[in-house]
Amino acid sequence: DRGLHKHMKQVYLATTAAGVAPTLVTYGTLVSRAGKGRRAADARFYYGELLARGLRPDVPVLNALMNAEAKGPEPRRALAVLADLRARGLEPTVISYNSACEAWCRAGRPEKARELVAAMRRAGVAPNERTLSILVNGLCKAGRVEEALAAFRGAKREGGGGSAANEFVYATLIDACGKAGRLAEALELYRELRFDYAAAAGAGPAAAGSGPHRPPNVVVWTALLDAACRGGQLPLAFALLEEMMRCGVAPNAVTLTALFRGALRLGDPRAARQALDVLRAAGLDTKVAYTTLLSECSTSQEQETASQIIQALAENKIHQQELARAVAGGSPGVGDSSSSGDLGTEEVVA
């Protein structure tokens, strides 16, 4: 929150102006807070103040600064902090390496992150689940699905970061496989995740998919359902939706938007209407989905379907301006999101 960080800086300036000398711990907290708020410039300011007061930064402070820079607008600055840490005779920790890996991935160089993971192993620092998440996400975003899968398999073999329940990694890989047209591999990853859950519960792989074991979260289901749609398998997508709900996992707007969007891509307005019915029954906002469907129906001359949607629009009291935009082919929301194809996995990384 911008206001909170502005207030924090005002308090700091007032306190130091009154002659109070902050400690290293205080500066570490300020740098860390700035980093969590994605305010790299503020983190650099506090770090500069620390140095100006003659304090010597320790590993936690430098890690906090590195994390702030890795998430900032110039992620490569984090690499300079790592070099500074080493120059001071300090040993990088797994947190240090993770921030540097994230910096390379955000700079579009995931291969450098892979090299860094190899270097940390040589230095005797074991990668953790966060390391794998950063690396897999970076490789997938760069379209390097094969390398991401290889990194994942390697981590599982070595028992580092790839064990059960890292749902973000599974969701990222399933999403990437779906976008690459590799539905069979996406389904295999889903089955593997269920096996991991069963094994973690002590039930063994044979019990996967049955019994009281915790089901995957909504992000995993959404990625899998979208992969089925992209693979032209609408019946499978609806079957997955039913299984998801039987497992007690409630679909969200992103899940049903993926299903709705898939039906439209495959030219199946009946399936799109079915997705809308599920969306409405789940108590989710149908406005954007309705206007998108109306736009598709209008352009494909499906007048009967368009009439049904117009009636639904009226029942839902959607503003006429929204209707006009939809008829003109400029519907907001779902239509826009389909161009990005973002299923919401990025926020877990942060």
TrEMBL record:
Name this polypeptide is given: Pentacotripeptide-repeat region of PRORP domain-containing protein
Stretches forming PPR repeats: 93-127, 128-162, 166-196, 217-251
Key word Repeat present: yes
Biased composition (Low complexity): 328-342
Lineage: Eukaryota, Sar, Stramenopiles, Ochrophyta, Raphidophyceae
Keyword Transmembrane belongs to the record: no
PROSITE patterns xrefs: PPR (PS51375)
Pfam families, alphabetized: PPR_1, PPR_2
InterPro entries in alphabetical order: PPR_rpt, TPR-like_helical_dom_sf
NCBIfam families in alphabetical order: PPR
UniProt keywords, alphabetically: Repeat
UniProt-annotated stretches for the region Disordered: 328-350
